[in-house]
Amino acid sequence: MKKITLSFALCAGLFGCTDKPVETPAPADSQQTTTAAPAERPSNLPDDAPVVKVVTSGVLPPLTFLNENGNLTGIDVDIIHAIGEDQGFKVELHKERFIDMLPNLEAGKYQVVISGLSPSPERIAKFGHTNAYLQNPSIIMHKPNVAVTDIASLKPLRVATMKDTTQEKLINELSVASHETVDTVFQLYQGLVQDKYDAVLQDKYFLEYIALNYPDHQMSVVEYDKTPNAADIVMYTQKGDQELLDKLNAGINNLQNSGEIDKIVSRYLTLPTAK
């Protein structure tokens, strides 16, 4: 399993620290466009294979983030490269601020956006979108000694969510005993370990990726949103680029049927086998 480094300034570690970890997205002025080193991605395609410009945020581990060498990696990154190999195009990968990805797609700077995005009605109206390539359901993570069965069972508990998220809105409407908002996924998990919170809400991949870095701390999980397609994750293309959209969907279908997407996910979200 690949791990993100979670370091703290002047901090004793997971239990005694309140500073933000480096997993926090970088400031806006530091998130300049970058291109992943092609040497990291050997390809079986001919030199004259078409090139597709793809953009991702690079700040959502395990889907998309920078490794210790400063290169883009993650589940989304591996999937788009695998689709390119399957469909005969090379991937030119770029990193942009999250808020700039879709506007720059619309402006023609990029051809594909892949960054853990859901198929919202607003986006679908402006862009082409693929079939779902992943399911990333919203979950409640809690300590095993706390009884949680659904959203309603959170009312008497101390709950935390990330700021400006659908989870924050949901908990505000529920009026729980205590609700705190934080800036990062790591702070949610840290608060559970430090017994600041009884339960936290966020998307499954993001919380589980942090938790897998700390296997000594057992947590329980409840999936709470059963709305059809609520967990879908899709890619976006420019409106009307049907040829590219067809290739992406064909690649998604082939990788799902072959089990390759499951293999990619397991590289980031499966604990190593004990030796």
Automatic annotation (TrEMBL):
User: What PROSITE patterns is this protein classified in?
Assistant: PROKAR_LIPOPROTEIN (PS51257)
Tell me the keywords, alphabetical order. Signal
Q: Which residues form the Solute-binding protein family 3/N-terminal domain?
A: 51-272
| Chain segments carrying region Disordered | 23-47
SMART domains xrefs: PBPb
Which Gene3D superfamilies has this protein been placed in? Answer: Periplasmic binding protein-like II (3.40.190.10)
Family annotation (SUPFAM superfamilies): Periplasmic binding protein-like II
* Record-linked InterPro entries: Solute-binding_3/MltF_N (IPR001638)
Keyword ATP-binding in annotation:
no
**What family classification does the UniProt entry report for this protein?**
Belongs to the bacterial solute-binding protein 3 family.
Q: What is this protein called?
A: Arginine-binding extracellular protein ArtP
Q: Which organism is it from?
A: Moraxella lacunata
What gene makes this protein? Answer: artP_2
